[in-house]
Amino acid sequence: MPTLRDIMTPGLVTVDPQATLKEVATLMLEQDIGAVLVMDGEHPSGIITDRDIVVRAVAYGHDYGTAVTDYTTGSVFTMEADTDVQQAAREMADRQLRRLPVTEGGRVVGMVSLGDLAVRTGGSADETALQGVSQPSADPQ
């Protein structure tokens, strides 16, 4: 059975909490990614997605020089690299996560997305996660 280590994208793009919305958006453009992990030292303090930037900042006309922490989703849920892919898919579904930071010994080493589940597992795990993520949230943002 594959583990998160087998399907994760290694080499995360991260920023510190003082990064601005413009800096993060530029990183997303340059790296062709949709999410950036905000790190407080070695620990993730938040995650920000391209959707967060649009819905939480641009839509309200906020200044692009604002610190990214004003728009991140805090309490980042992570799973260890040796976690079974099916278990991770269930957690992603239950928590309605589209992206899951992967850790090894408590240190962030990669990211798994719904796309990774679909492409790298032959579709076996993505159906579980997609069904959960697609459900309306009890607490919409």
Automatic annotation (TrEMBL):
<keyword id="KW-0129">CBS domain</keyword>
<feature type="domain" description="CBS">
    <location>
        <begin position="71"/>
        <end position="127"/>
    </location>
</feature>
<feature type="domain" description="CBS">
    <location>
        <begin position="8"/>
        <end position="64"/>
    </location>
</feature>
<protein>
    <submittedName>
        <fullName>CBS domain-containing protein</fullName>
    </submittedName>
</protein>
<dbReference type="Pfam" id="PF00571">
    <property type="entry name" value="CBS"/>
</dbReference>
<dbReference type="InterPro" id="IPR051257">
    <property type="entry name" value="Diverse_CBS-Domain"/>
</dbReference>
<dbReference type="InterPro" id="IPR046342">
    <property type="entry name" value="CBS_dom_sf"/>
</dbReference>
<dbReference type="InterPro" id="IPR000644">
    <property type="entry name" value="CBS_dom"/>
</dbReference>
